[in-house]
Write a structure and sequence with these properties.
Elements (H helix, E strand, L loop, with lengths): L8 H10 L1 E5 L4 E3 L7 E7 L2 E6 L5 E7 L3 E3 L2 H6 L6 E4 L3 E7 H10 L1 H17 L1 H10 L2 H8 L3 H6 L2 H8 L3 H11 L1
Antiparallel strand pairs: 1-8, 2-7, 3-6, 3-8, 4-5, 4-7
Length: 182
């Protein structure tokens, strides 16, 4: 958290007091679409996917989270509405979780936690997300695949159907792109 904004010892102590650790087996849901988001998560180990289902019931991945990532259905938390996304463990995972209500009470009382939250959201949900939204609108699946290949650690951990879903194409189309690149 201190990489986003330095926290006081008091804030750290209060935050630790509301945290707990939990393990999720591969393919376990941390949050199911349609449920209320009750926790924020910090991923200690494993790989997590954030997805929803399209009108045909197909899984569409929005983003993948690797170790040292904060994960939540942020829009559901902010609007206090059921999540439009599911969060799933794509590998066995260890997380630190902290309850939404208790955490939000803390950051309303402690400026440093509020500033952490602002800096985190700005960096990860505005600055980092904007190029992705532009690429989805203007770039081909091949170009997006080449960009995704830059994260070699992620690529070796994802199944082909995860990659195809993330790119918005079928596994057959992904095979064609891979063949063309090779």
């Amino acid at each position: 958290m201190n990489t986003y904004y330095p926290l006081s010892e008091e804030s750290i102590s209060l935050l630790v007091s509301i945290c707990s650790e939990e393990k999720f087996d591969k393919n376990s849901l941390l949050l199911e679409e349609g449920a209320m988001a009750r926790y924020y998560y910090f991923l200690k180990s494993g790989l997590i996917g954030y997805y929803n289902r399209d009108e045909n019931g197909d899984t569409v991945y929005k983003i993948f989270f690797e170790e040292n990532s904060f994960i939540a259905s942020t829009s559901a938390i902010i609007t206090n509405e059921p999540s439009k996304f599911s969060i799933i463990a794509l590998e066995d995972c260890e997380v630190i979780k902290y309850p939404v209500v208790a955490y939000r009470e803390l950051f309303h009382r402690h400026l440093d936690l509020a500033l952490f939250q602002i800096h985190y959201l700005e960096k990860n949900w505005v600055v980092k997300k904007e190029p992705l939204e532009i690429s989805l609108k203007y770039e081909t699946a091949k170009t997006r695949y080449i960009a995704l290949m830059q994260n070699k650690n992620l690529m070796i951990r994802l199944k082909q159907h995860h990659i195809a879903s993330y790119l918005g194409i079928t596994p057959t189309q992904l095979s064609r792109i891979k063949k063309e690149i090779n």
